[in-house]
Amino acid sequence: MDHIDRWNILEPDAAAVRLPDRTLDYRELATLVSRGGGALHGYGVESGDRVAVWVKNDLPSLVALWAVPRIGAVVVPLSSRLSHREVIARLDLVEPALVLGSDALTGRTSHATESLFDGRPSMPAPHGPEDVHSIFFTSGSSGDPKGVRLTWGNHESSAVAAAAAQPVGPDDSWLAVMPLYHVGGFAVTYRMFRSGGTVVLEPEFDAQRTAEQLASVSYASLVPAMLHAVLEHGVVGVPEKAVLVGGAPMTSSLHERAREFGLPVVPTYGMSETASQIATAAPADPPESGAPPLPGVTISAGETVGPILVDGPMVSSGYWGEPDREGPFLTGDVGFVDAAGRLHVMGRADDVIISGGENIHPAEIEAAIAGVDGVAGAVAFGVPDETWGERLEAAVVVSDPTLTGGAIAEELRAGLAGFKVPKAIHILHELPLGPTGKVDRAAVRTLTSADPAD
Description:
Layout: H1 3-10, E1 15-18, E2 23-25, H2 26-42, E3 50-55, H3 59-70, E4 74-79, H4 84-94, E5 98-100, H5 103-106, E6 132-137, E7 147-151, H6 152-165, E8 173-176, H7 183-195, E9 198-201, H8 207-213, E10 219-222, H9 224-233, E11 242-245, H10 252-260, E12 265-271, E13 276-280, E14 298-300, E15 306-311, E16 329-337, E17 343-348, E18 353-355, E19 358-360, H11 362-370, E20 375-385, E21 389-398, H12 405-412, E22 424-427, H13 441-449
Parallel strand pairs: 1-9, 3-4, 3-5, 8-9, 8-10, 10-11, 11-12, 21-22
Antiparallel strand pairs: 1-2, 6-7, 12-13, 14-15, 15-16, 16-17, 18-19, 20-21
Helix pairs in contact: 1-2, 2-3, 6-7, 8-9
């Protein structure tokens, strides 16, 4: 039985979704999802078909994300921030039987997502843990799109493991500002509907509104850039249980600053291929202490920095159109596992800068820069150099307008090897972000290429 249907039986009047302008109980949500399934049948969708959905953080998209799998079809969330070319590449890959969204953008006949509300009530289709539930596209900024196959078992195993670290129940609520077209956003809805809790769905991230909402929820999920923006605005209140911070490494200075505001921040690590988080710290853990794997998760990386490999029932068996993986999944990240079994993530393997034969991990440099008083944000990156192969540079946002790149470099020399001190430090007003809230390194390189270093 679908989790929404189950709670419609157990607690039909309990709040399922809180939107800015209305709250739906489980009876209302179950009715909409059931009608959504009927509308999909009316469009000719059958079990096993792919249905692409142009996803926004709104009620029609949420209903579509749950109605499509309910009738045995495979939901394919598409980012509302994609260009026409990017949408077409994804549609060509999965060959959907139906597109819910915009004709103009997709280049295909589509139906409005809101039309799902007009369907007749439908019955759920039977499904097993190995049946494909959804295809989430990876958020890499370069290369061809890859559709991650996630089964019902992957999503359920992820929610079970997450509940061991963040217990949830009918009295809990979770602030959802992450995009629903990313697995981290969808996973919030799965955890809460599985537990009978409430999803507090925001149409987009807004630092002021998020700061105000935190006091009224049990949990929230943010990326580091969002957390920084909330702290800059000023924390109004704190959630009852935890603020999960993932999507990119959280620096110790950001961690400590959040704690000064009383926020129970929790570093977490996961990705599309693992159906969300697989390693999560606890609110009481000190900064830079790493994160233990969740129950059922196996992580290996060695005691020195190396490739991170993961396995477990929540890990995808592979990408759409490609053979199943064999053995543990190679994440593309690098890090190490300490003597206590806790994972420390250094960053992406392809972000490693090789300068003069030395490997430089951007996360280490960014953490050092973030520790300088007056620095509000930083990103380290490599640029081609005839002498060194790559030259280490950094872009920095400062809260102290008198702070210069030269002063930052001078302070870094006291704690870093010479080759780890950026050859150029660019002062920016803000760091450009990608769709997931992570810093867009390619955009930073473009911005700084014509900008003389401070």
